[in-house]
Amino acid sequence: MSYPDPRYLNDNGEISAKYQPSAEEPDTGFIGATNISYVATEETTGGEYGLYKVDMGPKTMGAEEHFHRAISESFYVLSGEVQFYNGERWIRGGEGDFLYVPAGGLHAFQNDSDEPLSMLMIFSPGAPREEYFEKAAEYAERGREEAKAFQVRHDTYFTDMLDA
Questions:
Q1: Which pTM was predicted?
Q2: Spatial contact of 30 and 134, defined as CB atoms under 8 Å apart
Q3: Contact of 50 with 42, CB cutoff 8 Å
Q4: SS3 per residue for 82-122
Q5: DSSP string for residues in 25-72
Q6: Is residue 99 assigned to a domain?
Q7: In a domain, 23, yes or no
Q8: Which residue range forms the structural domain that includes residue 157?
Protein backbone atom coordinates (compact mmCIF):
# COMPACT_ATOMS: atom_id res chain seq x y z
CA MET A 1 0.00 0.00 0.00
CA SER A 2 1.24 3.47 -0.78
CA TYR A 3 0.26 7.01 -0.03
CA PRO A 4 -2.44 8.58 -2.23
CA ASP A 5 -1.47 10.99 -4.98
CA PRO A 6 -0.64 14.47 -3.70
CA ARG A 7 -3.53 16.91 -3.54
CA TYR A 8 -1.41 19.88 -2.51
CA LEU A 9 1.12 20.72 -5.18
CA ASN A 10 2.83 23.94 -4.02
CA ASP A 11 6.45 23.84 -2.91
CA ASN A 12 5.81 25.48 0.46
CA GLY A 13 3.15 24.78 3.04
CA GLU A 14 0.41 27.28 3.77
CA ILE A 15 -1.48 28.53 6.77
CA SER A 16 -4.69 26.54 6.59
CA ALA A 17 -5.18 24.71 9.90
CA LYS A 18 -8.62 25.23 11.45
CA TYR A 19 -9.02 25.36 15.21
CA GLN A 20 -12.47 24.89 16.63
CA PRO A 21 -12.94 25.37 20.37
CA SER A 22 -15.63 23.27 21.97
CA ALA A 23 -18.99 24.93 21.70
CA GLU A 24 -22.54 24.26 22.70
CA GLU A 25 -24.02 22.04 20.03
CA PRO A 26 -27.61 21.83 18.86
CA ASP A 27 -29.89 19.42 20.66
CA THR A 28 -30.25 16.91 17.88
CA GLY A 29 -33.07 14.92 19.42
CA PHE A 30 -31.60 12.04 17.39
CA ILE A 31 -33.21 8.69 17.96
CA GLY A 32 -30.95 6.62 20.17
CA ALA A 33 -28.61 9.35 21.35
CA THR A 34 -28.63 11.60 24.35
CA ASN A 35 -26.46 14.08 22.45
CA ILE A 36 -24.45 14.26 19.25
CA SER A 37 -21.67 16.86 19.12
CA TYR A 38 -20.42 18.06 15.77
CA VAL A 39 -16.65 17.85 16.21
CA ALA A 40 -15.71 18.26 12.53
CA THR A 41 -18.38 18.43 9.85
CA GLU A 42 -17.82 17.82 6.15
CA GLU A 43 -17.89 21.59 5.76
CA THR A 44 -15.02 21.93 8.27
CA THR A 45 -12.88 19.26 6.57
CA GLY A 46 -13.69 20.13 2.97
CA GLY A 47 -15.56 16.85 2.56
CA GLU A 48 -12.69 14.59 3.62
CA TYR A 49 -14.49 13.21 6.69
CA GLY A 50 -17.03 14.02 9.37
CA LEU A 51 -16.30 13.45 13.07
CA TYR A 52 -19.06 13.33 15.68
CA LYS A 53 -19.14 12.56 19.40
CA VAL A 54 -22.12 10.44 20.44
CA ASP A 55 -23.22 10.30 24.07
CA MET A 56 -25.87 7.71 24.86
CA GLY A 57 -27.68 7.14 28.11
CA PRO A 58 -28.05 3.73 29.73
CA LYS A 59 -30.33 1.21 28.01
CA THR A 60 -30.54 3.30 24.83
CA MET A 61 -31.29 1.87 21.41
CA GLY A 62 -28.93 3.28 18.80
CA ALA A 63 -29.22 2.61 15.10
CA GLU A 64 -30.92 -0.50 13.76
CA GLU A 65 -29.26 -2.67 11.10
CA HIS A 66 -28.38 -0.55 8.06
CA PHE A 67 -25.68 0.23 5.52
CA HIS A 68 -24.38 3.16 3.49
CA ARG A 69 -23.59 3.08 -0.23
CA ALA A 70 -21.35 6.16 -0.46
CA ILE A 71 -19.64 6.47 2.92
CA SER A 72 -17.75 4.33 5.41
CA GLU A 73 -18.46 4.66 9.12
CA SER A 74 -16.09 4.09 12.01
CA PHE A 75 -16.65 4.01 15.76
CA TYR A 76 -14.18 4.58 18.59
CA VAL A 77 -15.39 3.99 22.16
CA LEU A 78 -14.28 6.70 24.60
CA SER A 79 -16.06 5.36 27.69
CA GLY A 80 -18.73 2.87 28.62
CA GLU A 81 -19.79 -0.21 26.68
CA VAL A 82 -21.55 -0.55 23.35
CA GLN A 83 -23.05 -3.43 21.47
CA PHE A 84 -21.96 -3.36 17.81
CA TYR A 85 -23.58 -5.47 15.13
CA ASN A 86 -20.98 -6.27 12.45
CA GLY A 87 -23.42 -7.73 9.92
CA GLU A 88 -22.95 -11.21 11.30
CA ARG A 89 -23.19 -10.99 15.09
CA TRP A 90 -23.32 -8.61 18.06
CA ILE A 91 -19.95 -7.69 19.61
CA ARG A 92 -19.45 -5.93 22.95
CA GLY A 93 -17.07 -2.98 22.65
CA GLY A 94 -15.49 -1.01 25.45
CA GLU A 95 -13.15 1.89 26.03
CA GLY A 96 -10.49 2.05 23.31
CA ASP A 97 -12.25 -0.38 20.96
CA PHE A 98 -12.70 0.52 17.30
CA LEU A 99 -15.07 -0.72 14.58
CA TYR A 100 -14.63 0.13 10.89
CA VAL A 101 -17.55 -0.41 8.53
CA PRO A 102 -16.77 0.03 4.81
CA ALA A 103 -19.41 1.27 2.38
CA GLY A 104 -22.01 -1.48 2.00
CA GLY A 105 -21.21 -3.05 5.38
CA LEU A 106 -24.20 -3.96 7.53
CA HIS A 107 -23.99 -2.55 11.04
CA ALA A 108 -25.97 -1.41 14.07
CA PHE A 109 -25.23 -0.26 17.60
CA GLN A 110 -26.90 0.16 20.98
CA ASN A 111 -26.12 0.75 24.62
CA ASP A 112 -27.73 -2.10 26.55
CA SER A 113 -25.69 -1.45 29.71
CA ASP A 114 -26.72 0.37 32.86
CA GLU A 115 -24.02 3.02 32.30
CA PRO A 116 -23.72 5.92 29.82
CA LEU A 117 -21.67 5.50 26.66
CA SER A 118 -19.50 7.99 24.81
CA MET A 119 -17.99 7.28 21.40
CA LEU A 120 -16.69 8.96 18.28
CA MET A 121 -18.26 8.31 14.86
CA ILE A 122 -16.30 9.07 11.72
CA PHE A 123 -17.86 9.19 8.24
CA SER A 124 -15.57 9.15 5.21
CA PRO A 125 -15.72 10.88 2.88
CA GLY A 126 -17.47 13.65 4.74
CA ALA A 127 -21.20 13.95 4.19
CA PRO A 128 -23.73 16.49 5.50
CA ARG A 129 -24.96 14.27 8.35
CA GLU A 130 -26.18 17.14 10.53
CA GLU A 131 -29.66 17.30 8.95
CA TYR A 132 -29.95 13.54 9.39
CA PHE A 133 -29.11 13.76 13.09
CA GLU A 134 -31.41 16.74 13.64
CA LYS A 135 -34.46 15.54 11.69
CA ALA A 136 -34.47 11.72 11.70
CA ALA A 137 -36.93 11.54 14.60
CA GLU A 138 -39.26 14.02 12.89
CA TYR A 139 -39.24 12.05 9.63
CA ALA A 140 -39.80 8.75 11.46
CA GLU A 141 -43.14 10.17 12.64
CA ARG A 142 -44.20 11.39 9.17
CA GLY A 143 -44.85 7.96 7.73
CA ARG A 144 -42.98 5.22 5.97
CA GLU A 145 -42.61 6.78 2.49
CA GLU A 146 -41.38 10.18 3.72
CA ALA A 147 -39.02 8.52 6.18
CA LYS A 148 -37.64 6.21 3.49
CA ALA A 149 -37.03 9.12 1.08
CA PHE A 150 -35.27 11.06 3.87
CA GLN A 151 -33.07 8.08 4.71
CA VAL A 152 -32.12 7.44 1.08
CA ARG A 153 -31.28 11.14 0.65
CA HIS A 154 -28.88 10.67 3.57
CA ASP A 155 -27.31 7.43 2.27
CA THR A 156 -28.87 5.31 5.01
CA TYR A 157 -30.51 2.03 3.98
CA PHE A 158 -32.19 0.12 6.78
CA THR A 159 -32.60 -3.56 5.98
CA ASP A 160 -36.26 -3.54 7.02
CA MET A 161 -37.04 -0.77 4.50
CA LEU A 162 -35.60 -2.86 1.65
CA ASP A 163 -38.14 -5.62 2.32
CA ALA A 164 -41.12 -3.27 1.89
A1: 0.85
A2: yes
A3: yes
A4: EEEECCCCEEEECCCCEEEECCCCCEEEEECCCCCEEEEEE
A5: PP----TT-SEEEEEE-HHHHTTS-EEEEEEE-TTEEEEEEEE-SS-E
A6: yes
A7: no
A8: 35-162
**Residue 123, domain CATH:** 2.60.120.10
Q: Kindly tell me the burial class for residue 52, based on how many C-beta atoms sit within 10 Å of its own C-beta (0-12, 13-18, 19 or more).
A: buried
Q: Is the CB of residue 135 less than 8 Å from the CB of residue 59? A: no
Q: With contact defined as beta carbons under 8 Å apart, do 51 and 122 qualify?
A: yes
Please check whether residue 66 is in contact with residue 103, taking contact to mean a CB–CB distance below 8 angstroms: no
Residues 16-48: tens digit of each pLDDT: 777 776 655 554 555 556 788 888 888 889 899
CB of 93 within 8 A of CB of 81?
yes
Over the stretch 70-109, which tens digit does the pLDDT of each residue have?
999 999 999 999 999 999 999 999 999 999 999 999 999 9
- Integer-rounded Cα Rg, in Å, for the chain is 17
Fill in the amino acid letter for 147: A
The contacts of residue 150 (CB under 8 Å, 6+ apart) are 132, 135, 136, 139
Determine the residue type at 71: I
* Residue 41 covered by a domain: yes
